[in-house]
UniProtKB/TrEMBL annotation:
Organism field: Thermus aquaticus
Name used for this protein in its record: peptidylprolyl isomerase
Top-level lineage group: Bacteria
Ranges annotated as spanning the membrane: none
Tagged with keyword Transferase: no
EC class (word): isomerase
Biased composition (Basic and acidic residues): 586-603
Amino acid sequence: MFGINRRAVTILFGFLALAFVVGAILLFTPQAGQEAKGKPVLWVNGKAVYELDLLRLQGNDPLYAANPQGLLKVLVDTHFLEQVILTEALKQDAARIRVGSAEVRKEVDRIREQYGLRDKKAYEQFLNQIGYTDAQLRAEIKAQLQIQKRLEQVRSSAKPTPEEVRFYFEVHQEDYKTEPRVQARQIVVDDKKVAEEVLAKAKAGEDFAALAKKYSKVGAEQGGALGAAPGESAPKPVTKVVFPEKVAEAVFALKGPGLVGPIEAGGRHYIVKVEAYLPPKVPTFEEVKDQVEKDAGDAKANGALEAYLEDLRKKAQVRFAEGVGYVYKNPTVATVNEREILLSQVLQPVFSNQQTAALIQQGLGELAVQFFLPQTLERLVDQEILVGAAKKSGKPFIGSKDEVAQAYLLYETRDVTATEAEARRFYAENPAFFTVPASAEVVGVVFQEEAKAKAFREAALKASDLQALAKAHGGTVTEYGAVNPGQLPAVLDRLVFKVKEAFPKGSLGEVSEVVKLEDGTFTVLLIKNRKPEELKPFEAVKEEALEGVINRKRQEKAQALIQKLRQEAKMENRLAQVLAELTPKTGEKPKEEAPKQEAPAKP
């Protein structure tokens, strides 16, 4: 399913990331002379790629580490060869880009610095280790720099029109929505009694700025004004981040002017006078024009780069030698409104997924294929349908295919609203979204002997110097800090958060029973500031509840739209049939012979 509650920030450009991986491997893979490269395996635009080159690359590919067999071998080979083909085509296209010797020298110097190769002997040993001469290394570095420059050239040449920039803002307005802010003053003191006295004075009508100048340990010279520049004393709008978390929650829960505190946080006590509450708002285009132009420019560049790589692959003339040790199969696995989706396009995101690679290395590659390939193909089908609908709409959508698909859903669901009644129902149905988890400050003291742990426990109820007490009884102190349920080892977590009754309390905090751990050691916990789980009141989270309703309704509307577009589209899904055809029969190995190809291999 396409997430639509925020703009996608990470775009997969087909083979782009993998092309760079291959390039990095080429840079630091031992090379051999031309005569020692073995036989050609394939030609890309007439340039040969040799057997030993591929074997070295294959040795650095984690997908081959598990020695894939059968269908998985066919899929891994196809995916691998697609990377090689695109990388070679990219290097050839970038070869015309000018790179000066000074740029290469700078990169060589960076490598030498990175690897500590300060003298000539160390550098020569490094070259020998990676199998390069100095000239070969510089040539490879030049090729890498040419690729970088070519890709940047493609990106920088794509400039959005004023119409595209304004439409981009219209679609992505929520991304520019401001956070709630307050104009406020604060008084921060170290003593709770002083804080209570100051609060009483403020409630009695004494000037808050004057009280801040007299008592506050922070910002006294500015009358406690938050957001004020040096030398100024008028508060400026600030967001939650300027306050400790507990203080921020209380301050912003007011939703208007008022006094908050004293609230203890980090050993200090805060009193805040909120002068004005500024709710979130969507700025005008002019207010955020510079940022929108930058974001739209990035999107336009993403689309141009994706199109460039697809076109480069499409035009690549690929020919395979006979009797090679790889199987290359790249049939059409689906059609959407006469547009083809090829097997390699599905394999790329699947094999780039770390979870897939981990399953393959565990010998569960077939399971990964059965689960991830159909799922990924469905997502690509949805993407193709949405991109087609976006083009048909006539609106100036820009970006990669994934960005355009996301933007189209955002645009078509932009008018969704929510009522307070719906927000209250959402709040009631999803209490976990609005609940502050239980918390406690925990220190553990570990002992090798139960008797020493028990003696420490008795003494801890009367002592105040933890380190001295632990040392005297042979214990090791572990500071867990402020924790929530699930963050401690299981047995300790149950002790802190599942036991309902409080433990006996001393100056060091609550002192737990002695607990034996799985490793045979014994632990005593010291617990402070234990707080139960708390459901925030609706008024404090009303805006979040409204947003939750809107997001849910937009997702439902988006799914309905996708289903409608699917019903209207001409689609054929051949994945199951293709996989069956590519699966070697029992006892049969995949034919290790790639077809000769004079025409471009399908991208």
